[in-house]
Design goal:
The protein is mostly beta strands. It has helices at residues 80-83, 129-135, 160-163, 225-228; strands spanning 19-23, 26-29, 47-48, 66-70, 76-79, 89-96, 119-128, 145-150, 166-170, 178-183, 186-187, 197-199, 212-218, 253-258, 269-278, 284-290, 298-299, 301-303, 313-321, 324-334, 361-365. The structure holds (molybdopterin-S,S)-OXO-molybdenum.
Length: 366
């Protein structure tokens, strides 16, 4: 077998043993690495970049980073130094790539074949977007979207709209959105979007714009290709286009991390089955675990602190396993009564896979 690919330079400070390196812009946390301490350490958090990150100099003089705000009564430019004086909020949330779980689609959609590790639970601090908008006289009337633009240098000779990372979410999403400069208690690394990142809790990864340089309230969705054609729920075989739903809110989901599918044969006896569960926009309220692929279910117990509706919760079920083969699955329910589905929603891009059946862990016990 080929030697494992090295971590990309901008993520070389991470723990190599924690990752599956798919490419220089996609590194996935190993399923066996997720522990039970709720917050995912930066050293173990996945990375997905659609463009190469900006020059590392931007995280040296962080305070000089500039952000333009548009679509408010009095548009203006802020430096990060100025934003820090406005207000502070701290939010724990699940950061999950839209394509997490793509690797379970049998038709192999193009894109990174992530299984579970394009996700983590991360704590962000920064200024609430609503505070910034208020300070500038409020969102101008009739603007239905909040549009964030990444500050990468665009490759030359291409139509900027075909490469720029710019995404729009419904304007209501600003309610809990942050312009964040801190992640898990440290200034945000370049890998995760420092010096300044837009955080839209409950929305999939791509909507959380790194190195944000422009935040605009807009009448229409961005015309960037990543918005108009990328990240669309298109039927299998079809290309993405603006008529199809955009990949935005996450839905209720859970999976088991231990025992992991990478584990060899288990010893008969007591096993602590644990994993993570989250509800997207709603807090998760219940997790059931099945040892027989979903015929019989038992309630699991939540462990560890509840970091709020956008964070994931760790769950555990202690089970006594005799020798034999077992298909371990988990199924989460959120406070709104949404139950994690058995089947994935088929779509060409392999997005939003929340199927509990796909996330099964098969173990043999001797
Ligand atoms: N931002 C920017 N600026 N750029 C890029 O590339 N990507 C996306 C987000 N944001 C980008 C951005 C994606 S796509 C994702 S997932 C995320 O991010 C990730 O994050 P981290 O931090 O983990 O790396 Mo899929 O849906």
């Amino acid at each position: 077998t080929a030697a494992p690919k090295p971590l990309p330079a901008f993520a070389s400070w991470k723990d190599p043993a924690s990752f599956i390196v798919h490419s220089s812009s996609t590194i996935e946390t190993r399923r066996s690495v997720f522990g039970t301490s709720v917050v995912t350490p930066a050293e173990q958090l996945y990375v997905r970049n659609n463009l190469p990150p900006p020059d590392p100099a931007v995280v040296i003089d962080r305070d000089a980073w500039e952000l333009t705000i548009e679509g408010v009564k009095t548009p203006r430019k802020f430096t990060l130094r100025e934003l820090r004086t406005m207000d502070i909020e701290t939010t724990a949330m699940v950061l999950q790539c839209s394509g997490n779980g793509r690797g379970f689609f049998p038709n192999k959609p193009s894109g990174t074949p992530w299984t579970v590790g394009a996700a983590g639970c991360v704590v962000w601090s920064g200024v609430p977007v609503r505070r910034v908008a208020e300070a500038l006289g409020g969102v101008a009337p009739g603007l239905a979207y909040m549009t964030g633009t990444g500050g990468e240098k665009l490759p030359e000779g291409l139509d900027p709209l075909s490469v720029i990372v710019e995404r729009s979410v419904p304007v209501q999403a600003m309610g809990d959105a942050l312009l964040a400069w801190e992640m898990n208690g440290a200034p945000i690394s370049l890998a995760h979007g420092g010096p300044l990142r837009l955080i839209v809790p409950g929305y999939t990864g791509v909507n959380n714009i790194k190195y944000i340089k422009r935040l605009a309230f807009t009448a229409r969705e961005s015309e960037a290709k990543i918005m108009s054609h990328g990240y669309r729920l298109s039927p299998p075989g079809a290309k993405g286009d603006p008529s199809q739903p955009s990949v935005q809110e996450m839905s209720v989901k859970s999976w088991i991390n231990s025992p992991s599918p990478e584990a060899s044969t288990l010893k008969a006896g007591l096993v602590q089955i644990h994993g993570v569960a989250f509800g997207g926009l709603h807090a998760v309220s219940r997790v059931e675990v099945s040892l027989d692929g979903g015929k019989k279910w038992s309630d699991a117990r939540f462990v560890g602190p509840d970091l709020g509706r956008y964070a994931w919760r760790q769950f555990v079920l202690a089970a006594k396993l005799p020798p034999g083969s077992f298909t371990l699955v988990s199924r989460a329910t959120d406070v709104a009564g949404n139950v994690q589905p058995e089947q994935r929603l088929e779509n060409a891009g392999g997005y939003n896979n929340a199927s509990w059946a796909d996330h099964a862990v098969n173990v043999s016990v001797a």
